[in-house]
Amino acid sequence: MHITQELVNNSEVPAIFEATFRHDGVLVQVDVLRRSHKKEFELIEVKSSTTVKPYHLLDVSIQQHVLRGAGIRVKSNHVMHVNRDYVFNGDLELAKLFLIEEIQSDRLLTRSAVSGILNDLYTMLSQPEPPNIETGTFCKNPYRCEFFEYCHPAPDEDDVRSLPIPAEKIGMLLHYGLTSISELPTATHLRLYWHFTNRECSKIDAARRACTCGLSVDEKLQSELAAIKYPLCFMDFETVAPAVPRFRGMKPYEPIPIQWSVHRQAHERGMLEHSAFLSPHTDDPRRAFVESLCKAVACARSIVVYGSYENTQLSNLSRLLPEYAATISSIQSRLVNLLSIIRENVYSPAFEGSYSIKRVLPALVPGMSYDDLAVRSGDQVASIWEQLCADDVGTVEKARLRKALLDYCERDTLALANLVDVLGEHADSS
Ligand code: SF4
Fold first, then answer.
1. pLDDT the model gives residue 166
2. Each residue of 51-80: b (16+ CB within 10 Å) or e?
3. Based on the domain organization, do 166 and 239 belong to the same domain?
4. Same-domain pairing of 202 and 346
5. What is the CATH number of the domain that holds 394?
6. Has residue 187 been placed in a domain?
7. Which residues partner with 105 through β-bridges?
8. Paired sense of beta strands 15-23 and 26-37, if any
9. Could you give the percent of the chain with pLDDT greater than 70?
10. Which residue, by CA, sits nearest to atom 1 of ligand 1?
11. Beta pairing partners, 100
12. Does residue 124 sit within a domain?
């Protein structure tokens, strides 16, 4: 704060980054404080989003409140964000990549409203115990709360919070004091009087069955698995999506596929044969990605993926490389989405309300998970890949990072192969 004050007083300084102020017990660091006149400033909050969000206005309101309280004259308020329409033409134009939007005062909270919020927060913080409130969508949106795990312990098997239905519907049940799956009204009642959809009701029925036998498998599972034909491939992609586009013609946050893993299986329960691609540098990997992938899955009659992400990336690649459009279209026509099959036909309380592969895998294939890997989530892939491509990283470290990425993607496709085996057994015995 001392340095900030010196810079504020020096009228030669055109802008201050991370200017730090305290007022009313609140400390703020303003991303950019641009001098518009000798003693007057423009407040600029920098966001990585592509639009101004409602919660950005709260950030700006609080910053303005603190700055004014600290004696700074704020002429205008702005949010700088990424321009989603910017197209990289080979030369980075920062003035086009970012947009600076002025926020008029009628969009900001009044000083008394900010004071009211701060008073409520101080009152809450002075209590010896945390407030007793129900969790809700606000726990994850707009940000995942840092106390999320504390407030969301793994629910009991009979707890309605483990149901794979929208959070609003769970909130409705809790609001009316219905906490146990076993005490929920009938499906007809839920449909008629609570406006639950047929799909939500069938999930609740599956959960009721699973509470008594551990796993609920719909009889349709067998016919849906019959769509899987051998020779078979299990396929998974990893992408990075940088805010600053890397290659000509790209927009901010456009995904770049950098890695694939494929396990091939000639016949049911046959040996698995693995192949993989990982771009080792930051040159455009998309052509090499497609060329190698087309060869790897050429022999497959079905290609099992988990979700729709791979299909979307293939469509993007088809537009970028029209000479591969026919081959890519053939790959897309052979895709089988295992996530949809599991979501529609299998329920286990061990999924804890989520059909992410990280939850489904250990529940259906005991002993198999991602816990032993250096990379355990797709969120880590971009930063590890950036490290792998950096010039100042030694060969030993590069080898370690490369192995970590390859192991992670390989586990995804090995997981798919194991899930298909296990589901086949459940379908046979259901
Ligand atoms: S997770 Fe965070 S936002 Fe949600 S109830 Fe707990 S403290 Fe509040």
1. 87
2. ebeeebbeebbbbbbbbebbebebebbbbb
3. no
4. no
5. 3.30.420.10
6. yes
7. none
8. antiparallel
9. 100
10. 148
11. 80
12. no
Beta bridge partners of 240: 256
Domain end (from 197, 214, 231)? 214
Average predicted confidence (pLDDT) for the chain = 92
**Is any ligand 1 atom within 6 A of the Cβ of residue 147?**
yes
User: What number is the average pLDDT over the span 299-316?
Assistant: 97
- Which range marks the domain in which residue 385 is found? 222-429
What beta strand segments (E) does 156-231 contain?
216-217
Taking the C-alpha atoms of residue 195 and residue 275, their distance in angstroms, rounded to an integer, is: 48
Domain co-membership, 199 together with 256: no
Based on the fold, state whether residues 61 and 185 are members of the same structural domain. no
CA-133 nearest atom, ligand 1: 5
Place of tokens 């129900």: 134
In a domain, 127, yes or no: no
What's the token pair of residue 114?
């900010």
Whether residues 150 and 171 fall in one domain: yes
Task: Reply yes or no on whether the pLDDT at 132 is more than 90.
Answer: no
Tokens linked to 400: 């370690």
Specify if 247 maps to a domain.
yes
Return the ligand 1 atom nearest residue 151 CA.
6
What is the pTM for the complete model shown? 0.84
Same domain, 377 and 291: yes
| The last residue of a domain, from among 117, 147, 172 | 117
Other CB atoms within 10 A of residue 160 CB: 24
Specify the pLDDT at position 242. Answer: 93
Determine whether the shortest distance from the Cβ of 135 to ligand 1 is under 6 A.
Answer: yes
pLDDT of amino acid 155 = 76
Higher pLDDT, 155 or 373: 373
* Average pLDDT estimate for 165-179: 88
- Same structural domain, 302 and 155: no
Q: Which atom of ligand 1 is nearest to the CA of 148?
A: 1
Helix, coil or strand: residue 131: coil
* Tokens read off for 198: 């047929």
Q: How confident is the model at residue 356 (pLDDT cuts 50, 70, 90)?
A: very high
Domain count of the fold of the chain: 3
Name the band, by pLDDT with cuts 50, 70 and 90, for residue 385. Answer: very high
Question: Which pairs count as long-range contacts for 325-334, CB under 8 Å and 24+ apart, including other chains?
Answer: 327/294, 328/290, 328/294, 331/293, 331/294, 331/297, 331/303, 334/297, 334/300, 334/301, 334/302, 334/303
Residue 429 has pLDDT above 80, yes or no: no
Shared domain check, 149 and 43: no
